[in-house]
What does this fold into?
Amino acid sequence: MRHLSPRTASVAAVSLVLALGAAACAGPEGHGGATSAGAGGKPRKGGTLTVLNSQPQEDFDPARLYTSGGGNVPSLVFRTLTTRHRADGAAGSKVVPDLATDLGRPSKNATVWTYTLKDGLKYEDGTSITSGDIKYGIERSFAAELSGGAPYLRDWLIGGDRYQGPYKAGPDGKRGKQLASIETPDARTIVFHLNKPEGEFPYLATQTQTTPVPKAKDTGTTYEKHPVSSGPYKVVSNENDGERLTLARNTFWSAKTDSERKAYPDKVDVRSGLDSSVINQRLSSSQGADATAVTTDTNLGPAELAEVTGDKKLASRVGTGHFGYTDYLAFNPKVKPFDNPKVRQAVAYAVDRSSVINAAGGSALAEPATTYLPDQKSFGYTPYDHFPAGATGDPAKAKDLLKEAGYPHGLTITLTHSDARDFETSPEIATALQDALKKAGITVELQGLEDNDYKDKVHGAKTEPGLFLAHWGADWPSGGPFLAPIFDGRQIVKDGANFNSGFLNDPSVNKEIDEINKLTDLNAAAERWGALDKKIGAQALTVPLFHPVYKRLYGQGIRNVVISDWTGVLDISQVAVK
It folds into this structure.
C-alpha cells in the first residue's frame, strides 16, 4: 500500500477524525472475513462495486504511485512481480508471487535477484507481457516528469542514483537510455543488480514500479488516463485526475495466473472528492447503489463511532483492525535540555497514555504503545517498556530523574505540533501531554504551526525543534522500512527532508541494519528487527504513544470482506456484491 509516513502525500496521512487513513478487519470484534454480519453468503460474480472516497485517485500511473496498496484500487489494474497475500489479519502480511513464479532467487549475498514470469500473462489488448515491459516500466519511473513513486529502486539499483529515465536524451541526442543494472536475458527473465545486500527485495517487488508497461503504448505524463491493464480490470474512464474512475473487466486477465485477486464485480465505480461525513452517511443509509459501496480512505470519527455502536445492524457493518503505524514523541538531542538522557527519560515517565488515547478518540481508535515497532509479528514485534509508568504516567519517578539531571525545581520546554485536526499531531493530543507533564513539574509551552510549516520545521535538520509530535508507518510489513529511515545514521539528511529526528549515528546500530538486510529468511530478519528496536528504545530518543485502530463502514450488500494487516484496508479485489 502507500507508505504511511510523513514523507508521503496521499492516503498515507492517516487521520481517523478527518477520515484520511487505513481501515481494518471486518466485524466489530476483529477479523471478520466472510463470517462477519453483513458480509456472509457465498460470493458470486456480477454487479457494480461503488467506492466512495474523500481523496481522489490522483496520478493513476504505476510510476507515480507510491505502492499498489493505496485504497487497493491500483492493484485491480496493475499487477507486479510480487504482491501481498489477500487474506485476513496476520496471514495477509505475507508476500507472495504475482507476475513472477516465486519470490525471487537471490545470489549468495542478496545483491542479485532473478525473477521468472509466469506463462500466459496478457495485457488488456491480448498481447503478451514480457520481462522487457517490466524493465521499461521501472526505467520510466526514474523520469523527473513521473516523480512520486517510492525511492527504493533508485537507492538500491546499481547506477540508480544517476539514472534519469528513458525520456531524457543522452550526449548523443538519443532517447531511450536503459538502466544496465536491470537485465532481461529472455522474455520471461528479469535480473536486478543491487549495490548492497537487500534480503527484503521480495517486498520491494510489490511496488507499482514493477508493473509492466508496453513501451509502444507509453504516453508519458498522460499515460495515467489509460494505463494498459495487466490486472483483472481496465480503465474505462478517468475524470478530473482520478476524481471519478470507472473500471471494467479485462477479458484477457486469467485467474489461472492470478490466485490472489478474485475480481467478482463486473464493474468498479470509484467516486472521490466527497466529504467524509457524507461518505459515512451514505454507507450508513446503504440505499440504492450505496448498498454495494465501500470506502478505502474514510474512517469513523469518535462521534460517528458512538452513534454506530449503539445500532446493532450498523455495528455489524463496521470493519475494525490495524495497520503498522506508530504515533510518538520525538526528541532532538542537539537541543537542550534534551541532550541529557535523564530529561528524555523523565518525559517518558511523565506521559499519561490514557489521556493521550482519549484525545485521539478513545480506546476504540487507539491502543497504547511502549515499543516503536507496531505490535505485529511480521515487524518482529518484541514487547518492552524501558520506562514503565503504567497507563497514567509516573510523575514521581519523572521528578526524581529531573533532580538527577539538575532540574530539582522542574523545567520549561516547548512541544511543537500541527494545528491541523489530523488525529496524530493534533492540538488535543498536545494539550493532553501538556497537562500530564505539568504533574511532573514540567511546564510545556505549545507551539502549534500550520501543517506545511510544521512539516518543514520538524523535517529540516537545521530547524528541527527539541520536542515534537511525530508518526511513522510501513511501506511493507517489516522492521526495515520502519527502523532504518529513523535510526540509521547514514540516512541523516542535512539539506532536505530528514526523518532521523534523534540524529542517531551509532556504528553498532548501522552495522546491525546491514547484517539484517543480508538475510533472505524474512522470519529470521523479523526477530532481529525486534531485538534492534528494543536496543534503540533504551536510548529514549522517542516516546511511543499509541498505535491507531481503524473503523470503517461498508454497505449492507457487500460480501466476502477481507482486510489484511499489510494494508489495513478492505481489499476490493476480494469483495463481491452478489
